[in-house]
């Protein structure tokens, strides 16, 4: 591909599963490369596996891409709508002598070659028998309607070599490549044919995809060459592993991007984290990076050869950093739907006052529901009376603190400064340490021993709710 061609990259998921972390990372790298170079990012849905591809999965992929902010410039194109191109390409390859019809049993189309059982892995001596069929016999059998697959005719000798932008030079001897199927007898293309036909047709300049496709590349290069098309740059990105260094899978927790969305990760944090899974900027000490920084620093040279380990703790840390950096209004906007979806009716003015109190205390947006549910419920869930007892105190002390607290709060303005001052003074007068006074009140109004700052919490709850809850606690001590 001429160095001057404008960059065109694609993300080509198969909708046989949800958009998973690995796929999203591949999409992100393509997107970053397109945005870095001012190129074009194409979305292509590889749905030729009709039995396993579903509309629901297609939707899931689009939702995941949109959530991550990976906007595409062209597509989505669906391979299922482009069958004529693949069939015509297979025909062209037969006509140019680069492929042949194979009449062997249908089962063999899915397996790679009738001679695959050859233990040495040397296909050159055991090529498909149909390779040698005389042309007139092939024509006659086809004309009589006999079903046939189309196989690529792999050169007898030599090797295919390419310089992977990540892994460096890779070379595979042709004797190790079977005459792979291009088109099955039902006219459905195999992955190799459809991917190459499309990449040529869409003028893809850089194929950036998972390292699991390295071994497919020589076959695909043979197709480019047979079709007289310029080769793209191949960049294979390392795999993503779980903490136990096996390939990331459900065993390690959520792998679907949507699950992370639902848990309350911010897309910008998730994107930042994914970008660093197998890529590092030139100054690799920097971890929190805006989109603009990621786009300006992204390069294929920065992609690592070694597999990346998915570290949930680090992802959560990063999410918490992003949460804290959001302006209150914006964080409130993100929290409100979660509160509402949990069945609480929170208005945005109230939420705006709660946000600053909890934002240091949550790692995921959904943590709000456990850290601060007491702001939204009318009734607190029942808690153990023993929780009301302050340190170095007893139930009698708790009772006294609650009684006095209620009296004081009933006559104080509900702003946090006034509340703080009034409760401190009351504690002093009663000979209690401030903490001994605050503890039972905190438990009474929040139902828990750790909460956001007490006076601010009281202020947001309001006088009526605070007094009601303290009264209720007094009934049980
Ligand atoms: N549909 C293939 C996959 O999901 C795409 C591979 C490629 O990018 O060439 O793995």
Describe the structure.
The protein has 477 residues and is of the alpha/beta class. The chain folds into 4 domains: 166 residues, Rossmann fold (3-Layer(aba) Sandwich); 100 residues, Alpha-Beta Complex (Glutamyl-tRNA Synthetase, domain 3), CATH 3.90.800.10; 50 residues, Helicase, Ruva Protein, domain 3; 90 residues, Orthogonal Bundle (Arc Repressor Mutant, subunit A). It has 19 helices and 12 strands. A 3-stranded parallel β-sheet has the order 1-2-3. A hairpin with a 3-residue loop joins strand 6 and strand 7. Helix 12 crosses helix 13. The longest helix is centred in the first third of the chain and has 17 residues. About 2% of the residues have low confidence. The structure holds glutamic acid (GLU). The site of glutamic acid (GLU) has 7 residues, from loops.
What order do the strands of the largest sheet run in, or round the barrel if closed?
A: 1-2-3
Number of strands: 12
Bound molecules: glutamic acid
Q: Rg to the nearest angstrom?
A: 32 Å
* Shape, per Cα inertia axes: elongated
User: What does the largest sheet look like?
Assistant: 3 strands, parallel
Instruction: Quote the average pLDDT.
Output: 93
Secondary structure tally, helices = 19
Could you name the CATH topology of the largest domain?
Rossmann fold
Structural class: alpha/beta
Head-to-tail CA distance between termini: 80 Å
Query: What's the CATH superfamily of the largest domain, by name?
Result: HUPs
CATH level-1 class of the largest domain: Alpha Beta
The helicity comes to 40-55%
- Label the CATH architecture of the largest domain: 3-Layer(aba) Sandwich
Pick out the low-confidence regions.
Answer: 112-119
Strand content: 5-15%
Number of domains: 4
